[in-house]
Amino acid sequence: MALCNLNVENTPYEISYELTNLKAKKCLLILHGWGANKELMKQAFNPVLSEYKCLYLDLAGFGKSNSPTSLDTKGYARLVEAFLKHLHFTPNALIGHSFGGKICALLSLSQTTELLILLSSAGIIWQKSLKTRLKIKLFKALKALGLGKFYSLFASKDAQNLSPLMYETFKKVVDEDFSEIFAQIPCKTFIFWGQDDKATPLKSGEKIASLVKENEFYPLKGDHFFFLKNAELIAKIIHKNLEQ
Questions:
Q1: Could you read off the pLDDT of 218-238 as tens digits, one per residue?
Q2: Cα separations (Å) of 166 from 66, 95, 102, 233?
Q3: In 3D, which of 120, 119, 122 has the Cα closest to residue 238?
Q4: Fewest CB atoms less than 10 Å from the CB: which of 22, 153, 177, 179?
């Protein structure tokens, strides 16, 4: 593990990262999802991607990376771009799970990369249930009365136990519609999804596949973390397409 001190848009960040297989020629950037960290992605992919130089990092506010300010997904993408430039790291493939998938989708628009790998990516918005909409209305009413400090009682699972600053970040990123971003992706894209995913339902993967110009869609057994048991298959498809 290493730490990188980086100043982006006049804000100091300390980013925790790890580079593996340093002698490999082709490079992969691997981003975790909301609430996770680089160790989860390394656990899944380090054993099966040994022929590539892999960059695992803790996104700002997660793992051992700090977050001095709240960000939206575009802010995270700009931060990761600055980090890649600082390391002189040009990824041949971008791999992102859930929230990390949104960041990788944005990066694919500005990075010269051969492949984009989306693992149950966030970014497709469906209408919230009536129960959820009522909870939001109640919370807003309490906030207007100065009782916003009780947000944890109304927060979704992904928002629970967050610091106030990361809760502000969560509010910025949770309802971002990335349909137009997915439609602009310029590189070949592989979309992998857990058939029993409840966090980002399978219909989201089907929607993304309908938007991305050049893609292959793979529904696989498992939930939101399906890739932990399917990493070998994902790695084989990456290898086949990077080594053509």
A1: 999 999 999 999 999 999 999
A2: 10, 23, 17, 34
A3: 119
A4: 22
